[in-house]
Design goal:
Blueprint lengths: L1 H14 L12 E4 L4 H5 L7 H8 L4 E2 L6 E9 L6 E10 L2 E7 L7
Antiparallel strand pairs: 1-3, 2-3, 3-4, 4-5
């Protein structure tokens, strides 16, 4: 009887460590949604306010460098590897001067 109870207990604990089929898992987006279309709207010489209108409030504003804004977006989809996208916007003299990261403006 003890072996049976030990076996049942072990099976129950191991079942808690696996994924049950048919259980719905939520997609978890975090950060600023980044797209090539929004980055294409950015032009050198834009003010921080214009950039913020297009891209939204940056997730990370460097405390030691007010001329750098970082936008980060992660998406965790069930059963897939999480994706990470980053865009860094640099200002010189209060105007947009450079864009770095996973999305860059395309020449149209």
């Amino acid at each position: 009887m003890r072996k049976f109870l030990l076996l049942v207990t072990t099976v129950i604990f191991l079942a808690g460590c696996t994924q049950f089929p048919g259980v719905y898992k939520l997609d978890i987006p975090q950060g600023n949604i980044l797209s090539q279309e929004s980055v294409n709207q950015l032009k050198p010489g834009m003010t921080p306010r214009q950039v913020q209108f297009i891209m939204g409030t940056p997730i990370i504003e460097d405390t030691f460098n007010a001329n750098r804004w970082d936008y980060v977006y992660t998406m965790n989809k069930a059963g897939q590897t999480p994706t990470l996208s980053r865009v860094t916007i640099l200002f010189t003299n209060g105007l947009l001067s450079n864009i770095k990261g996973d999305y860059r403006p395309e020449n149209n």
